Amino acid sequence: GAVVSQHPSWVICKSGTSVKIECRSLDFQATTMFWYRQFPKQSLMLMATSNEGSKATYEQGVEKDKFLINHASLTLSTLTVTSAHPEDSSFYICSAKRQGQHQHFGDGTRLSIL
Amino acid sequence: AQSVAQPEDQVNVAEGNPLTVKCTYSVSGNPYLFWYVQYPNRGLQFLLKYITGDNLVKGSYGFEAEFNKSQTSFHLKKPSALVSDSALYFCAVSFDASGGSYIPTFGRGTSLIVHP
After folding, report:
1. What band does B13 get if pLDDT is binned at 50, 70 and 90?
2. Other CB atoms within 10 Å distance of the CB of residue A83
3. Is the pLDDT of residue A92 over 90?
4. DSSP assigned state of B101
5. Residues of A with Cβ-Cβ distance to B8 under 8 angstroms
6. For residues A111 and A89, is the Cβ–Cβ distance under 8 A?
7. Is A98 within 8 Å of A31 (Cβ atoms)?
8. Which of A9, A103, A107 lies closest to B104 in CB terms?
């Protein structure tokens, strides 16, 4: 149980394109979803925390207009990287949790901007 | 404020030997402690957690960790390493901020390499 699906797993696109990444909790209702960014050989950097039906809380230094997060339901959150540029290339990971439970992670999305 | 330290970037161990991946933490109040494993190009998989109770916690794939309050440590251990255990291991700490809602802070990760 407690499966989190993240899609797509890999995306390559041109500079200036907007890219949407989906994160779904398949068998539980997630009260909170998290979005992380991971650089090679580095730890996870928390980008934002989102609760269903409310605006995401962004960490300091993360541009909310650049990284749009929508948490429309208890099983789906999306991260849209708007007007992506090569410096946005990274591994993006989502996680989801229920109240009082630990996080369950998706398998990540490798984003490559040409 | 909360923080977690994984002092080793890399741990090398021979297959069949015991392994230890170190983690120390700093948190206000009682800690919630976690270990996750990450395989290449994958998300994090939960291994085990300490919330309360017995200081020795047993988790997935034969891993265990011991909570040591006096040393503020939560080292990950396994009696006999497998080559397939080679991966990136993350320690995380949080505390119960409000009725079961918590956001963990992750360590920088330790790369475990098990040699055949």
Report:
1. very high
2. 12
3. yes
4. B
5. none
6. yes
7. yes
8. A103
A103:B46 CB<8 A: yes
**What's the pLDDT tens digit per position in A14-41?**
999 999 999 999 988 988 999 999 988 7
The pLDDT value given to residue A1: 61
Q: Is B38 helix (H, G, I), strand (E, B) or coil?
A: strand
Nearest C-alpha of chain A: how many angstroms from B44? 6
d(CA B68, CA B74): 6
Compute the distance between CA of residue B90 and CA of residue B27 in angstroms, rounded to an integer. Answer: 17
Of B34, B99, B108, the CB nearest to A102: B34
Side-chain half-sphere of A94: how many Cα atoms within 13 Å?
A: 29
Could you count the other beta carbons within 10 Å of the beta carbon of residue A72?
11
Rounded Cα gap, residues B33 and A22, in angstroms:
28
Q: What is the DSSP letter of B62?
A: G
For strands B64-68 and B73-78, give the pairing. Answer: antiparallel
Alpha carbons within 13 A on the beta-carbon side of A38: 28
Higher pLDDT, B101 or B112: B112
